Amino acid sequence: MKKENLLTLIFSGFIACGFAQAPVADFSGTPRTICAGQSVAWTNLTTGGVTYAWSFPGATAPTSGATNPAARTYTASGVYDVTLAATNANGTDTMRKAGYITVIASPTIVVTPSPGYICTGGSVTLTATGANTYSWTPATGLNTTTGSTVISTLNATTTYTVSGTNANGCISRTNVLVYVNTNPPPTPGGITGSTAVCSGQTGVTYSVPNGGAPAGTIRTWSVPAGATVTSGQGTRNITVTFGSTSGNVCVTSSNGCGTSAASCLAVAVNPTPAVGTVGTITGPTEACANQTGVTYSVASVANATSYNWTTAGGAAITAGQGTATITVDFTNANDNICVDASNACNTSAQSCQAITVVPNAPAIPGGITGLTTVCNGQTGVAYSVANVPNASVYTWTVPSGASVAAGQGTRFATVDFGATSGTVCVTAGNACGTSLASCQTISVDPNPALGTIGTISGPSAACANQTGVIYSVASVANATSYNWTVPTGASITAGQGTSTITVTFGITAGNICVDASNSCSTSSQSCQAISISPSAPAIPGGITGLTTVCNGQTGVSYSVASVPNTSVYTWTVPSGASVAAGQGTRFATVNFGATSGTVCVTASNACGTSLASCQTVSVDPNPAVGTVGTITGPTAVCANQTNITYSIVSVTGASTYSWTVPGGASATAGQGTNTVTVSFGTTAGNICVTASNSCSTSAQSCQAISVAPNAPAIPGGITGLTTVCNGQTGVAYSVVNVPNTSVYTWTVPSGASVAAGQGTRFATVDFGAVSGTVCVTAGNACGTSLGSCQSITVDPTPALGTIGTISGPSAVCANQTGVTYSIPSVANAASYNWTVPGTATVTAGQGTAAITVNFGTTSGNIGNICVDASNSCSTSSQSCQAISVSSSTPAIPTGITGATTVCSGQVGNYSIASVARATSYAWTVPSGGSVTSGQGTTAVTITFGNTSGNICVSAGNACGTSLASCQAIAVSASALSVMATPTSTTCFACCDGSATATPSGGSAPYTYSWLPGGQTTQNISGICPGTYSVCVTDAGGCVTCANVIIIDPQGVAALTDNGTLKVFPNPANDYIFIEGTLSSSANLQVNIINVFGQKVMDKSLYANGSFSEKISIGNIAPGVYFIEIRSGEMLRNSKIVKVQ
Question: Which of 533, 601, 761, 986 could pair with 605 as two cysteines, CB 3.0-4.6 Å apart?
Fold first, then answer.
């Protein structure tokens, strides 16, 4: 073919192939890096494509068949692939671009308002988190529109939008609602709950709807006199326990902006008390079909006047309906018996009992499974029967002398037998009756059961074909025969059937076993493993160990190779030597004496002992060398230093000493003795020595030696202050490390001292009043360098004193101005430097010991106010005071906890929960009452007068005081008091006195309690001379007490005149004094008696004419006491109050 024709053919073929090409897929996306939530636009760059399949993993629409698909949005951060498959009639081409799109996470913005709501004109702090920069809109009420924290001051509820941008430039937005309470909350809606309750009823619930009340609304409830709110005070839902008084349940809504009008619900209290709880029904839980006259009951229910019983399965109540006990006739169906209790006021919850009705008595049980022959006294024998339908109990009977040890009542019984045969029987029963019995005859073998077999005694190793080997066991209780078995090839030559046998062995090892038996039973086996040795061991091989030892040498080791079939190795040693360890094994440790000889060993087993293997050992008459001690001598020397002496303590038994020295050094004298003289070169290393004699050489003792080439160089420049204060202490100086230095020596100016670090390259100096130089030299064993020095100027100004604590408030209000802070003057200070936190500013006093501060809008724990003092010489450390700024006054305290009904003079405890932002609390009490402790805190103790009223508390901080939260307190209408009137006895030692208690005030009826004696009447009689107390309780629970003294008429002359005898002070704390004048000398007995008539202290004293006695009462508890003073037949009584 011609060349031009060939080219034409090739070109034509190329053109023809060009019309049959597959597409070439390609695409682009813009932008390729986006924030989460943004979109990417796509451009199809394919050539030759007809149809397309796009894949966008991670996009909200992950696929597309469009030529140019719509933009795709990505919501989650990550790196994503994009794939495009282009197709035409000639094929498909796929372009996959891995990691093509990068999605960066957008910030998650969280805004926290504090407080959660505000009143008109109030301020709230809004804090945003989750981004790096923030922008706030609208600007209404904001102190700034940028930053993570802004302050909003508003008159109307407003929604803000905050945009946050993170470090990658991604933006997110969120909204926050600032709720402004323009008025106090609305009046609560209608109260839901019971309008009629019983006297004393508990757990009664009331509620109000939310009714559009703003966040932070507090509900304050009040209830009728005698009722209490047991839970929920402050919320929309409460639980109430009622007393006996009708009245209103009321609720108000309050917040920091005020309190609403009350919403009330009238509640009538039925004087009939609420019914108590019904207990568990007593009676059978199983009945027979059509059974009649079955009794059920419940314990009497407090305050109940009637009981209502019901049945659910057709059973009939034939008697007792309305009472606590009924009689029931059953049908053939299961039932449920229930009862509730009621009175004119309410009905209790039901108590129920499920009843199972069985159709008839069970069938006879099937055959009994278990042993039919047992031994005399055999225990733990198990018997059972198959389950019997409708049976609720199984009753087992056993032969005379036997007992059911376990399982009685079930279909599985465990029996312990005696000596008597008989039958084991069982019946099945239920509420309808009991079946006939199923029985099993049991024969009791008269032989008692065997005891436990013990361990076999006899050798565990025997020789092949050994004869006459004896084995035995201890006699087994009640055994009549013993059965022995022996290993294969062995035979029992005597004793089979007894507890001792004689055995002839073959060549096979194995177990010897034995069991014991009688006509009743056979014991378990006891076995003994037996090993068989074919013959006595061979002679042990050569002994490994020293053949020459020292006189008295200890711990010398010898051993032989293991000898087959050997169970023990026996060592013998020369006279005066001993086997210290390893006798019986192939390893022996020997302690030698002074005598040479042989060390020998034999190998043994049950078949015999080998001939001995021996090793001759010569004992050198010289004793072994002792231990070499520590080398004494310098551890650091100079290069080429000579005549340095080293030595050790003489070693026991040593005749010579061998010294070695570092390279380049030489021992110039003393080699062979325990003291050597050394001349050193320039090389460091170890000096070592051993001690030896003709018998042995000790281990080495070594000492490391460092060689310094020469004296150290001069230290470099000293680092530290060049100007110090007069008397300044703890000033640090240092130099860099100087090679080959072992010690640094510091010198300081006159009047100064090195407080720490002398000898090191770090020194701490305490200065006086004199300037001068601080110098340091470097030294080692080879000499000392010249000094490196630093001139020090001492400022004559004295050092500052210690700075004190800052005085001034630690809690202030936002935007508060003119707040003063100060510290005591600091000795020698010329100026003071104050710093304040956040947006606070110092408006006066900077540079002095007292400043005036204006605070900004930032609230919370904003930081510290700090101050330091200075003069021309130094600056003190800082003294700081943490500052907390409140943004507003505290919220109203929530409900007050404590009794709402009290008696005149009663002491009670009241408390509230802590209030946010509060720094103090102010309590007020009804007229005549007082706060005896806790004022200013969340818990107080109050002593009441006789006037009802409100206990109120408000919370305060630097910004002001909240509205008060109040609790109505009912005080008994009039103070309860009692007068106790005595009637003395008519004669000496008579007990015909009497006393009468006359109460006034309070609420009748009254109850009485007398001590001693315990009488409960208004009048008591038949009483002896002495002191009595009576306590009266009124209908409202108020209590008051009085004392009365019954006097013996025979002895009142000298001691009843108040002018001649007195007890003081009253009230008393630690001591009382008894003073008086008697017409003659007398012995006095002083008794101190409590209100219960118990004597708590007594004292005897002698008085002659005028007298005064001091008596300690510090150890008795606070309270009311009676002082009884007796002299013979005479008696004087007085009352005191002991206070804390």
Answer: 533
d(CA 1008, CA 1017): 6
CA angle 1054, 1056, 1057 (to 5 degrees): 80
Compute the distance between CA of residue 693 and CA of residue 96 in angstroms, rounded to an integer: 91
Strands (E), 314-384: 316-319, 325-329, 335-342, 351-358, 373-376, 381-384
The DSSP annotation for 374-431 comes to EEET---EEEE-PPPTT--EEEEE--TT-EEEE-TBSSEEEEE--S--EEEEEEEEET
Instruction: Judge if 616 and 640 occupy the same domain.
Output: no
Under a CB-based contact definition with an 8 Å cutoff, are residues 243 and 227 in contact?
A: yes
Look at residue 750 and give its three-state secondary structure.
Answer: coil
Which among 623, 647, 664 is the end of a domain?
A: 623
Cα–Cα distance measured from residue 426 to residue 431, given in angstroms and rounded to the nearest whole number:
17
pLDDT at residue 14, rounded to an integer = 36
pLDDT score, position 17: 39
Dist CA 765 CA 758 (whole Å): 10
Rounded Cα distance, 178 and 157, in Å: 6
Q: How many helices (H) and strands (E) does the chain have?
A: 1, 97
Contacts of 1081 (CB under 8 A, 6+ apart): 1102, 1103, 1104, 1105
d(CA 841, CA 819): 10
The answer as to whether 559 is a domain residue is yes
Please give the tally of structural domains in the chain: 11
For residue 321, count other CB atoms closer than 10 A to its CB.
14
Residue 490: predicted pLDDT: 93
Asked if residue 1042 lies in contact with residue 1016, where contact means CB atoms within 8 angstroms, the answer is no
* Coil vs helix vs strand at 914: coil
Residues ≥6 apart with Cβ < 8 Å to 312: 335, 336, 337, 338
Would residue 879 count as lying in a domain? yes
* 862 token code pair: 């904003």
Identify whether residues 187 and 231 lie together within a single domain.
yes
Task: Give pLDDT < 70 ranges for the chain.
Answer: 1-20, 116-117, 182-183, 211-216, 256, 973-975, 988-989, 1047-1060, 1091-1093, 1128-1130, 1137, 1139-1140
> Are 443 and 467 contained in the same domain?
no
Residues 442 and 465 in one domain: no
Q: Under 8 Å CB-to-CB from 10, ≥6 apart: which residues?
A: none
Handedness of CA 321, 326, 327, 333 (dihedral sign): positive
- Is the backbone of residue 848 left (phi > 0), alpha (psi -120 to 50) or beta? beta
